């Protein structure tokens, strides 16, 4: 077997399948695009689902990739096992309805054993197959020549994740030798739980359709097009080539571990199994964090951001276990970039930005950590005084709020002879996971193939970039109620034409609308929507007003006013994208967009709200470019030439040999397939109407151009005129002065009200102070005052403190739909054990409220004024029991 670096293993895999006619798909962003079912890209096939479910038919049905992926369902295992990771690379080869078992199995064997490629010893390779898959078994034994004692039947070898494609799979294992046998290994065979036989490749034969309602795979019908989906974990197979005991002793992790050793100065990897866990956790987590931030995710308290924050905090805590008290993760980011530079140069290129985000989060966590450690001390003291057990919900709070791993709390507890309620912790963890799952989309993880659309091969040419009317186009396909028909004259249908000027919805831009006219100049259908079919044709959704026939010729006319409005907003989106990068930084990347007739919406990655000043700068820059009347032009060219032009890819896409590049003067150049204005002057004016956050590290800007801006300004003029009338300003320009005058009048009125309230409260208090009741060993005054604020109650309490006519004072204010409660306690009563905070907590539920405070004074709010009397009575009972 050859000695190969991780970069050589990856490159050789991709080159092998390229030699078999596969197109190499680039590794996509970790942040899923248009897939609400995933938090992260979690497998090599995740980015190819659109091909497997038939949504899109690829140009080449043979694909291969090395895809970065993140899985975080059991983070706690990282470092404790030999091969568990949050970030990993999955290499795979895929067939979309092309080759199947007869090709893929011999290819796998060739790659693994051929001296030209991986050159593994065939004697060390073992295979498992699904018991009912006699075809795969026959190929392994009789075509490949695998010895019978190297093949095992495994009932679990059936890949099925719910509705959609499914099928049997075959797994390939590498025998690492008898030295990896464990004395207590009960499953020391390929496919069993052991360290000797390492699974290095899984090949899925996606041949069945798991339809709704079916519970047994024996009932699944065969797919219209059978597929191949394989996965080889890079980290695992590299450990084989580098003869590493675990994945961590490879060139993918050791440079990070060595750098961590230097920063520790106290510990070396390989000397202490407990400390080794910390080295592994840091190496794993910093890789995941660097890649995730590089792809646009940012630390936060929800979704992906929460995962990043959690990984960062776990790494910091494990750094402390290695004696690293200073900021250190930021210094590991360039190391990650250097390791991965051969295939992921963007990590090293953006290392400065990534490190700055990591550093800011480290600083933030250091403060949180100090608070958490103080809380942990209190938790330990309380448990020592109690039953000697730290409650599961408390351990979970430390984990969830302060980033303390369960094992850290457990270790601290064990040091002082305490235990932690693990069952309670697990219950809280499961509840959180259930909430996360419920918040996510419940769509199927992969759609069900529709052979009607995937088999649609008719040629269809789009000309809408330059033409909005096609004088003659032939109707080639007509679909009604999921069936191909030759004609229809009512209802709705989907139509494909030989030539079309209608833009299909794509890249956030809505579809064109318009009309279909027959050769007698009669309107026969309205085009209300256009979508792309799996093979790229434009599917026109028609509302029929006359008969339409396959083979007949029609005139297709786009609604030009609607088209122009959408196109202007699309051009504005490009201007906004460039302005954001120019003014906020190149790390702002597009996270989604919507371009309609009325407005545009643009989502982008950014840490924190965009300031009012920056929004104005962005708006001004775009309007400057509109005034400059920059020409908007486009050209079709090859990918390399487009990149030389400096064209920006809005999303991490796979581009074909020919790409379309849109230029806005010398201000912006982007890959783009949409429609645009002819010049920036056509936009008229650009106006930002809203800016807000939509999720962790993602901001949204909504804006208008052209007539949309005019309508927006007209509405604002109307609002200002209405406001002028309301404040009785003769001119709009005088509204500000009038508002200031009204505010001053209101301030004076509030002061007068406060003075009157004080007098009323004083009078009521004088009467109340004479009504002292006995409650057990204490005296108490209760009073409901006709005041409107907590301030009035506090002023009454201040008067009470002048003479302390009772031990306890309980005041209430009925505010109509809510209640204010306040309790004050005299010094002698406090010494006797009466605390205002305890009393307020006891009586607040009577008014459907809650509160707290200090021993001498406490406040509460509630929603049930009818409970005030009950609150007073409960206060008397509470005091009587003291």
From TrEMBL:
<keyword id="KW-0436">Ligase</keyword>
<dbReference type="InterPro" id="IPR050058">
    <property type="entry name" value="Ala-tRNA_ligase"/>
</dbReference>
<dbReference type="GO" id="GO:0005524">
    <property type="term" value="F:ATP binding"/>
</dbReference>
<dbReference type="InterPro" id="IPR009000">
    <property type="entry name" value="Transl_B-barrel_sf"/>
</dbReference>
<dbReference type="InterPro" id="IPR018162">
    <property type="entry name" value="Ala-tRNA-ligase_IIc_anticod-bd"/>
</dbReference>
<keyword id="KW-0547">Nucleotide-binding</keyword>
<dbReference type="GO" id="GO:0140096">
    <property type="term" value="F:catalytic activity, acting on a protein"/>
</dbReference>
<dbReference type="Pfam" id="PF07973">
    <property type="entry name" value="tRNA_SAD"/>
</dbReference>
<dbReference type="Pfam" id="PF01411">
    <property type="entry name" value="tRNA-synt_2c"/>
</dbReference>
<dbReference type="Pfam" id="PF02272">
    <property type="entry name" value="DHHA1"/>
</dbReference>
<dbReference type="GO" id="GO:0004813">
    <property type="term" value="F:alanine-tRNA ligase activity"/>
</dbReference>
<dbReference type="InterPro" id="IPR002318">
    <property type="entry name" value="Ala-tRNA-lgiase_IIc"/>
</dbReference>
<dbReference type="InterPro" id="IPR018164">
    <property type="entry name" value="Ala-tRNA-synth_IIc_N"/>
</dbReference>
<dbReference type="InterPro" id="IPR012947">
    <property type="entry name" value="tRNA_SAD"/>
</dbReference>
<keyword id="KW-0694">RNA-binding</keyword>
<feature type="domain" description="Alanyl-transfer RNA synthetases family profile">
    <location>
        <begin position="4"/>
        <end position="715"/>
    </location>
</feature>
<keyword id="KW-0963">Cytoplasm</keyword>
<keyword id="KW-0067">ATP-binding</keyword>
<keyword id="KW-0820">tRNA-binding</keyword>
<dbReference type="GO" id="GO:0016740">
    <property type="term" value="F:transferase activity"/>
</dbReference>
<comment type="function">
    <text>Catalyzes the attachment of alanine to tRNA(Ala) in a two-step reaction: alanine is first activated by ATP to form Ala-AMP and then transferred to the acceptor end of tRNA(Ala). Also edits incorrectly charged Ser-tRNA(Ala) and Gly-tRNA(Ala) via its editing domain.</text>
</comment>
<dbReference type="InterPro" id="IPR018163">
    <property type="entry name" value="Thr/Ala-tRNA-synth_IIc_edit"/>
</dbReference>
<dbReference type="GO" id="GO:0000049">
    <property type="term" value="F:tRNA binding"/>
</dbReference>
<keyword id="KW-0030">Aminoacyl-tRNA synthetase</keyword>
<dbReference type="InterPro" id="IPR018165">
    <property type="entry name" value="Ala-tRNA-synth_IIc_core"/>
</dbReference>
<dbReference type="GO" id="GO:0006419">
    <property type="term" value="P:alanyl-tRNA aminoacylation"/>
</dbReference>
<dbReference type="InterPro" id="IPR003156">
    <property type="entry name" value="DHHA1_dom"/>
</dbReference>
<dbReference type="GO" id="GO:0002161">
    <property type="term" value="F:aminoacyl-tRNA deacylase activity"/>
</dbReference>
<feature type="coiled-coil region">
    <location>
        <begin position="732"/>
        <end position="766"/>
    </location>
</feature>
<protein>
    <recommendedName>
        <fullName>Alanine--tRNA ligase</fullName>
        <ecNumber>6.1.1.7</ecNumber>
    </recommendedName>
</protein>
<dbReference type="GO" id="GO:0005829">
    <property type="term" value="C:cytosol"/>
</dbReference>
<keyword id="KW-0175">Coiled coil</keyword>
<dbReference type="InterPro" id="IPR023033">
    <property type="entry name" value="Ala_tRNA_ligase_euk/bac"/>
</dbReference>
<dbReference type="InterPro" id="IPR045864">
    <property type="entry name" value="aa-tRNA-synth_II/BPL/LPL"/>
</dbReference>
<comment type="similarity">
    <text>Belongs to the class-II aminoacyl-tRNA synthetase family.</text>
</comment>
<keyword id="KW-0648">Protein biosynthesis</keyword>
């Amino acid at each position: 077997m050859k000695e190969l670096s991780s970069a050589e293993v990856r490159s050789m895999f991709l080159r092998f399948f390229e030699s078999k006619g596969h197109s190499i798909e680039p590794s996509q962003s970790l942040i899923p695009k248009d897939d609400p079912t995933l938090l992260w890209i979690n497998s090599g096939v995740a980015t190819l689902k659109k091909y497997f479910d038939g949504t899109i038919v690829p140009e080449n049905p043979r694909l291969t990739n090395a895809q970065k992926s993140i899985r975080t369902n059991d983070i706690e295992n990282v470092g404790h096992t030999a091969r568990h990771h949050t970030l990993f690379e999955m290499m795979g080869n895929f067939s979309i309805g092309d080759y199947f078992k007869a090709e893929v199995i011999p290819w796998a064997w060739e790659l693994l054993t051929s001296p030209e490629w991986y050159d593994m010893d065939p004697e060390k390779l073992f295979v498992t197959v699904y018991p009912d898959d006699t075809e795969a078994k026959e190929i392994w034994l009789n075509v490949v020549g695998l010895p019978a004692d190297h093949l095992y039947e495994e009932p679990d070898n059936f890949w099925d994740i719910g509705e959609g494609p499914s099928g049997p799979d075959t797994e390939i294992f590498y025998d690492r030798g008898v030295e990896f046998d464990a004395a207590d290994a009960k499953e020391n065979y390929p496919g069993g739980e052991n360290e000797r036989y390492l699974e290095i490749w899984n090949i899925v034969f996606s041949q069945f359709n798991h339809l709704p309602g079916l519970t047994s795979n024996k009932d699944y019908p065969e797919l219209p097009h059978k597929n191949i989906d394989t996965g080889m974990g890079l980290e695992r197979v590299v450990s084989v080539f580098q003869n590493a005991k675990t994945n961590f002793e490879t060139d993918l992790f050791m440079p990070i571990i060595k750098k961590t050793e230097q920063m520790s100065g106290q510990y070396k990897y390989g000397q202490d199994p407990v400390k080794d866990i910390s080295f592994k956790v840091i190496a794993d987590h910093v890789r995941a964090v660097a890649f995730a931030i590089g792809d646009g995710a940012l630390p936060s308290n929800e979704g992906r951001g929460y995962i990043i924050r959690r990984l960062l905090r776990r790494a910091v805590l494990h750094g402390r276990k290695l004696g690293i008290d200073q900021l250190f993760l930021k210094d590991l980011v360039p190391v990650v970039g250097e390791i991965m530079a051969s295939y992921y140069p963007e990590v090293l290129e953006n290392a400065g930005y990534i490190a700055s985000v990591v550093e800011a989060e480290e600083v933030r966590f250091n403060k949180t950590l100090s608070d958490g450690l103080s809380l942990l001390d209190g938790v330990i003291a309380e448990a020592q005084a109690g039953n000697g057990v730290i409650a599961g919900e408390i351990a979970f709070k430390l984990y969830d709020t302060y980033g303390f791993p369960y094992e850290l709390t457990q270790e601290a507890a064990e040091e002082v002879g305490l235990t932690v309620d693990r069952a309670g912790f697990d219950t809280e963890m499961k509840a959180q996971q259930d909430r996360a799952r419920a918040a996510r989309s419940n769509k199927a993880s992969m759609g069900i193939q529709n052979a009607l659309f995937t088999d649609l091969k008719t040629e269809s040419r789009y000309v809408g970039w330059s033409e909005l009317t096609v004088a003659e186009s032939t109707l080639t396909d007509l679909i009604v109620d999921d069936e191909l028909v030759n004609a229809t004259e009512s209802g709705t249908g989907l139509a494909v034409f030989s030539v079309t000027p209608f833009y299909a919805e794509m890249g956030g831009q809505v579809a064109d609308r318009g009309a279909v006219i027959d050769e007698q100049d009669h309107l026969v259908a309205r085009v209300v929507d256009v979508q792309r079919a799996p093979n790229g044709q434009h599917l026109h959704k028609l509302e029929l007003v006359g008969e339409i026939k396959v083979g007949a010729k029609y005139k297709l006319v786009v609604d030009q006013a609607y088209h122009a409005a959408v196109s202007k907003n699309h051009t504005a989106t490009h201007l906004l994208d460039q302005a954001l990068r120019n003014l906020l930084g190149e790390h702002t990347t597009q996270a989604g967009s919507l371009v309609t007739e009325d407005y545009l919406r643009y989502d982008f990655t950014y840490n924190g709200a965009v300031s009012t000043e920056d929004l104005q700068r962005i708006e001004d820059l775009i309007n400057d470019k509109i005034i400059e009347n920059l020409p908007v032009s486009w050209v079709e060219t090859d990918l390399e030439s487009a990149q030389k032009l400096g064209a920006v890819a809005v999303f991490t896409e796979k581009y074909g040999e020919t790409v379309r590049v849109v230029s806005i003067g010398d201000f912006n150049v982007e890959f783009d397939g949409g429609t645009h204005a002819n010049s920036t002057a056509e936009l008229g004016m650009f106006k930002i109407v809203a800016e807000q956050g939509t999720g962790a590290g993602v901001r949204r800007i909504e804006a208008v151009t052209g007539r949309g801006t005019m309508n927006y300004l007209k509405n604002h003029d109307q609002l200002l005129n209405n406001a002028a009338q309301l404040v009785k300003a003769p001119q709009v320009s005088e509204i500000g002065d009038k508002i200031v005058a009204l505010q001053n009048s209101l301030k004076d009125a509030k002061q007068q009200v406060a003075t009157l309230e004080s007098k009323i409260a004083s009078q009521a208090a004088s009467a109340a102070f004479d009504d002292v009741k006995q409650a057990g060993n204490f005296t108490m005054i209760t009073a409901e005052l006709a005041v409107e604020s907590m301030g009035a109650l506090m002023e009454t309490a201040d008067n009470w403190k002048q003479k302390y006519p009772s031990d306890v004072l309980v005041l209430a204010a009925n505010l109509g739909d809510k209640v204010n409660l306040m309790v004050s306690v005299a010094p002698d009563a406090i010494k006797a054990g009466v605390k205002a905070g305890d009393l307020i907590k006891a009586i607040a539920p009577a008014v459907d409220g809650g509160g707290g405070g200090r021993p001498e004074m406490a406040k509460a709010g509630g929603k049930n004024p009818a409970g005030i009397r009950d609150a007073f009575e409960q206060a008397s009972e509470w005091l009587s029991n003291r």
